[in-house]
Specification:
2 copies of one chain form a homodimer. Chain A is an alpha+beta fold. The first copy, chain A, has 9 helices and 14 strands. Chain A has 3 domains: about 55 residues, no CATH class; about 100 residues, PurM-like, N-terminal domain (60s Ribosomal Protein L30, Chain: A, 2-Layer Sandwich), CATH 3.30.1330; about 170 residues, PurM-like C-terminal domain (Phosphoribosyl-aminoimidazole Synthetase, Chain A, domain 2). In chain A, the strands form 3 sheets. The first copy, chain A, has a 7-stranded mixed sheet with strand order 9-11-8-12-10-13-14, sandwiched between helices. In chain A, helix 3 packs parallel to helix 4. The radius of gyration of chain A is 20 Å and the shape is globular. At the A-B interface, helix 1, strand 1, strand 2, strand 5 and helix 4 of A face helix 1, strand 1, strand 2, strand 5 and helix 4 of B.
Amino acid sequence: MADPENGNPLSRGLVCPTPLSAEERVLLAHGGGGRLTHELIERLFLPAFRNDLLSRRHDGAVFDLGGSRLAITTDSYVVQPLFFPGGDIGTLAVNGTVNDLAMCGARPLYLSAGFILEEGLPLQLLEQIVISMRRAADLAGVTIVTGDTKVVDRGKGDGIFINTTGIGLLEHSLVIAPDRLLPGDQILINGDLGRHGIAIMASREGLNLETVIESDCAALNGVVGDLIRAGIEIHCLRDLTRGGLASALVELAEAAHRHLEIDESGIAVREDVQGACEILGLDPLHLANEGRFLVVVPANDAPRTLDLLRRTPTGTTAAIIGHVAESGPSRVTLKTRLGTTRIVEMLSGEQLPRIC
Amino acid sequence: MADPENGNPLSRGLVCPTPLSAEERVLLAHGGGGRLTHELIERLFLPAFRNDLLSRRHDGAVFDLGGSRLAITTDSYVVQPLFFPGGDIGTLAVNGTVNDLAMCGARPLYLSAGFILEEGLPLQLLEQIVISMRRAADLAGVTIVTGDTKVVDRGKGDGIFINTTGIGLLEHSLVIAPDRLLPGDQILINGDLGRHGIAIMASREGLNLETVIESDCAALNGVVGDLIRAGIEIHCLRDLTRGGLASALVELAEAAHRHLEIDESGIAVREDVQGACEILGLDPLHLANEGRFLVVVPANDAPRTLDLLRRTPTGTTAAIIGHVAESGPSRVTLKTRLGTTRIVEMLSGEQLPRIC
């Protein structure tokens, strides 16, 4: 194929600015949503795919088409185990992508579903997962309109991987993006942290906890729609999946070039989740959630926002957890319950592989 | 999660009409694009996801949004080997999805890219694939606007799987669908068959053929755009990927409820491809292609269509290969070069797993 315009990828800046060595290999932590995931994007994907939409680094891309403002987002789901308290890979594959659209401020409309099946997967199990997807789609008000199925040889997959890609419509004039953050903005969270991470971890490791901790997996488009319809001036939204609250805050601070000050006392963690974290040596700030998000709003909109978040069935522990500082470095500081202050970091290694 | 409306999946018709037994398992042939893939869709996916858009059974879904007509399509790519003569998994992941949009009559605009990486994959290899994707996207005139990366443990994947989902715009009033087929319509193909299938098979099996057969992998949106702009009254388009020409024709006949009569003498197969088929015991009609498609047009548009197909660099062997019969059962008959007639069937087993 002739390709005269493309020439040497190096000369076009397609390859990464810090060259990759032949020894560097993909690690589990590259998929963990922490520092290595971030580096892989910065060093490899962004230079190669470089374009204006991608550079905005949101949960999805927002673009104009025929007079409408649309959003598109994609996620592959590789969670293990496939079934866990509170959901399964099918529920997750619908809600996760619905939520990424919601975080763009879009009303989710249509999903595609791409299946990679491992030879030998029982068809009844596939059917259960597919029915979960339909139910989650009905609850979120989206339609699965197109799909694809591939099969890989036994031992070359892991039961089932699902990709969902979603399209949504922006029906307002808000610009929801990290660079909208202003000093004094309040940062809110819609409830307690860490149930998805612990649900997966406990079922994977066969932990015998006193209570069964269910994933918080849920669609967030309803509550985001409530905020938009109430006229809240949303500056940014971010869901707290892989990498948890810590990664979301650090990414936000870096993308916005703002200093964020967080107060630990506002962050709710259920006692059973806290207990499991202590047993497992995990930090709730790094735990994955599938029904939790941050919303950043001007201070005068914060009380109404909090009220709307608390009205949702799982939002009784919603809280204002911090604010955008007047000045300071592009990082996140946490005032702990003990009154000390520490810098919040993205997870650099691997805490919970294959959490979604 | 309360879900009062959904109730029993059986009562809502979400489960398949012919119940799945506990013994039934996913086979490689379920991903082969032949009879078993077809059955999996009919028995499992369609009943569960049931909706108007999905039921049209096209390569993608076409819907109206804010006054525009859009198409969405998804495909996961699991090809082995990752690099082959004429392309790699990255080229394929872009062109395959671009082509599915083109088959809906859409101008491809944006792609998402979801990566499932196996722990241990060399980063330089990933970089090569990602650069191939960018080049293929530039050639096809599409932009990769959003992405996702997951990592699975060593031995739970196979180097790299890629999902791409595409959005395109329909800029004409044609309705391109199997049910538009009319008696007397002519069926054309844009060139010779089987090079992708043989390229993969030969490199996978380490076959030492006299010539290196390169995949025909290419974007088809250019030539489809030419046909649309020329005012050709396109009734249907279908690309000849998994399952090859045979599956495409049989699916078309079944979906259109029409009898298709094909003349083998019109179908071009290069001598080296024919030779490889004989060595390997393969039927060129079942071989996968990644740059070939069928177009069905009214008889009076056929000469102009043929002319436009032949003007493309790889279209010199484009031909009229058959027509829609006045009546007869919903199947495909082939007049062979020997003058006999046979029924064309979808592949029922597995010919070439993981061809795309």
